[in-house]
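Input record, target 12 of the design panel.
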C-alpha cells in the first residue's frame, strides 16, 4: 500500500486556534523541528494575509529543509481578473517555496452568495490559478473548501470543481471538511465519489468540531486517500484541526501504514510538548497518546496488574511514542533520555558514565520545581556540562537591583548589576522599557568588557507562565527565553516565586550558554 503523506498546517491553520500565536523565530524553529521529525509538507503560512508570514518565508529562504517540503498557502485568483495580475497569487510565487497550496470553492452556496460570481467563472478561477502555478514550476496542492457540504448540496457541481483543479494540473486535491460537521459515512461516500471521478492523488483536511477530526481523516483512507492534513496537538480554530499527534501513531501502530519515519515516533511526546511550550499553552494531560495521563494508572488493581503484566491495562507500550507510565517511573528510561540528550549536545557519555545518577536526580528535582527543558536546550546543556566537567562558571552575578518609576505617561525601569569574572568585577547601570529588558542591558554591558562576543547575542523571545501550586507551595513563575547570535538559537529557563529572579536565571543561562559554545 502506498505511503500516507503527512501535511502539517500547524503554522497556518493551527495559528487560527485560540491562544496560539507564534513569532517568526518560533515558526522557523517549529518548521525545523517538523522537518527533523519527518513530516512530508510544512505549510508555513498565508503570505497574502499578513506581513508576519511574508517575513517567515523571507527568512525560510536561508534555511535548508532536509525531509519536508515547504508550502505557501493562498487562494485562487479573484473573479474577473487575469491570474497574472492578482497580487495575492504574486505573493505566493514570491514566497519561493517548492509547494503552493491554494483553496477554492466547491459549494454552490459560496460561489453565488459569498464570491457572488457564476459557476463557470469559479471553475475558470480554479483551473487558471492551478495552471499558472504549475507553469511557474510549483508542486500544487488544491484544497477544495467545503468539499463535503458542497457535495451534499450539489454533487455534480462539486465534482466539476475538483475536475477543474485536475485539468489545471494539480498534484494533490484535498477535500476539506471546513465546517467540521461531517460524519465518517459521508466522508467515505464523498471521497469514494471523488476517487471515481479523478486520477490525481487525493488528500483530506478535517476539523474536530464534533470530535471526529481524526476518525474522518482515517476513514477516507478506505477510499484511496493518501495525504492527510492536520496540526500538532490538534491546534486550530474552534475546537481544532485533525490532530496529527494521533494520526501519525495510529497509521504506524494500528494500521501498519508507512508515513513519517518509524523511529521519529519515539519523539512524538517531545514534539507535542515543544509545540505547547512554544505556544505558551498548558499541555493537555488528556491528549490521546502523548498526554501526561495517557498511560497513568491510578486504581490499585490497575497498578497491581500493570506491575505484573504491563500490557494488561495498556493498548501499547508508551515508550514507542516517547510517553511513560505514570506509576512506575522508569529510572532506566530517564537515564537513557539524559544520555541521548548529552550525546546530541556533543558529550561522549554512556549509561555507565559516572555522575549520571546525580545528573538525573538533579533534572528530576528541577522538573519537580517547575523547570521544563523541552524548549530550554541551552539550560539543559549547561546542567549536563557542569555535572560532567565540573568547570567553574564563566561569571557570577553577585548582586542586582531593579527599580521602576513612572514619569507622566512613560514608565522607566532601571537595573544595577554587579558581576564577577575571575578576580575582577564590574558594576553597571542600565535603563530599559521593562525590568527584564533593563536587567538584560545591565548584565550585558557589564559582561561585554570581558567577553566581547556577547555583543552578538540577542534576546529573540520571552515567555512567562504561572505554574500551579500542585506541590503545595505558592504559585511559581517559569520564564523561557529564546536567544540568538545570528547563526544559532537556543532556549533557557528560570523558575522562581519572583518573576524578576526567574528572568535573571534564564538570562544568566542564556549568556553562559553563548560563552560555552
Ligand atoms: Zn482548515
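The sequence produced for target 12 reads:
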Amino acid at each position: 500500500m502506498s505511503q500516507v503523506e503527512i501535511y502539517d498546517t500547524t503554522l497556518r491553520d493551527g495559528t487560527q486556534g485560540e491562544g496560539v500565536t507564534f513569532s517568526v523565530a518560533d515558526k522557523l524553529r517549529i518548521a525545523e523541528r517538523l522537518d527533523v521529525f519527518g513530516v512530508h509538507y510544512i505549510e508555513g503560512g498565508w503570505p497574502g494575509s499578513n506581513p508576519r508570514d511574508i517575513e517567515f518565508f523571507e527568512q525560510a529562504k536561508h534555511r535548508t529543509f532536509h525531509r519536508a517540503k515547504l508550502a505557501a498557502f493562498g487562494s485562487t485568483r479573484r473573479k474577473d481578473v487575469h491570474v497574472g495580475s492578482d497580487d495575492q497569487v504574486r505573493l505566493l510565487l514570491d514566497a519561493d517555496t517548492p509547494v503552493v497550496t491554494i483553496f477554492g470553492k466547491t459549494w454552490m452556496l459560496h460561489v453565488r452568495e459569498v464570491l457572488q460570481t457564476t459557476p463557470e467563472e469559479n471553475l475558470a478561477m480554479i483551473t487558471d490559478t492551478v495552471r499558472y502555478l504549475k507553469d511557474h514550476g510549483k508542486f500544487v496542492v488544491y484544497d477544495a473548501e467545503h468539499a463535503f457540504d458542497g457535495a451534499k448540496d450539489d454533487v455534480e457541481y462539486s465534482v466539476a470543481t475538483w475536475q477543474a483543479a485536475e485539468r489545471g494540473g494539480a498534484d494533490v486535491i484535498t477535500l476539506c471538511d471546513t465546517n467540521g460537521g461531517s460524519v465518517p459515512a459521508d466522508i467515505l461516500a464523498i471521497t469514494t465519489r471523488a476517487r471515481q471521478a479523478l486520477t490525481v492523488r487525493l488528500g483530506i483536511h478535517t476539523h474536530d468540531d464534533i470530535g471526529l477530526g481524526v476518525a474522518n481523516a482515517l476513514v477516507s483512507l478506505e477510499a484511496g486517500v493518501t495525504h492527510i492534513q492536520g496540526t500538532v496537538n490538534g491546534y486550530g480554530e474552534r475546537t481544532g484541526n485533525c490532530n496529527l499527534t494521533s494520526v501519525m501513531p495510529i497509521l504506524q501502530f494500528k494500521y501498519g501504514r508507512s508515513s513519517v519515519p518509524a523511529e521519529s515516533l519515539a519523539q512524538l511526546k517531545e514534539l507535542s510538548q515543544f509545540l505547547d511550550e512554544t505556544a505558551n499553552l498548558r499541555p493537555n494531560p488528556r491528549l490521546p497518546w502523548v498526554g501526561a495521563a495517557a498511560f497513568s494508572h491510578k486504581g490499585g488493581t490497575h497498578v497491581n496488574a500493570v506491575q505484573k503484566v504491563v500490557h494488561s491495562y495498556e493498548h501499547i507500550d508508551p515508550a514507542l511514542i516517547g510517553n511513560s507510565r505514570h506509576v512506575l517511573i522508569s529510572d532506566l528510561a530517564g537515564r537513557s533520555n539524559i544520555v541521548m540528550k548529552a550525546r546530541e549536545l556533543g558529550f561522549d557519555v554512556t549509561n555507565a558514565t559516572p555522575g549520571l545518577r546525580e545528573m538525573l536526580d538533579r533534572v528530576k528535582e528541577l522538573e519537580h520545581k517547575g523547570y521544563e527543558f523541552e524548549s530550554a536546550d541551552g539550560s539543559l546543556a549547561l546542567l549536563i556540562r557542569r555535572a560532567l566537567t565540573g568547570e567553574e562558571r564563566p561569571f557570577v552575578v553577585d548582586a542586582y537591583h531593579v527599580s521602576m518609576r513612572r514619569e507622566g505617561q512613560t514608565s522607566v525601569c532601571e537595573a544595577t548589576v554587579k558581576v564577577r569574572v575571575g578576580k575582577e568585577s564590574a558594576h553597571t547601570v542600565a535603563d530599559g522599557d521593562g525590568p527584564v529588558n533593563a536587567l538584560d542591558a545591565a548584565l550585558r554591558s557589564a559582561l561585554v568588557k570581558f567577553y566581547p562576543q556577547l555583543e552578538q547575542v540577542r534576546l529573540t523571545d520571552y515567555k512567562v507562565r504561572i505554574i500551579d501550586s500542585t506541590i503545595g507551595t505558592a504559585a511559581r513563575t517559569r520564564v523561557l527565553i529564546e536567544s540568538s547570535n545570528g547563526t544559532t538559537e537556543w532556549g533557557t529557563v528560570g523558575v522562581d516565586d519572583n518573576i524578576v529572579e526567574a528572568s535573571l536565571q534564564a538570562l544568566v543561562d542564556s549568556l553562559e550558554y553563548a560563552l560555552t559554545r
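The chain has a mean pLDDT of 90.
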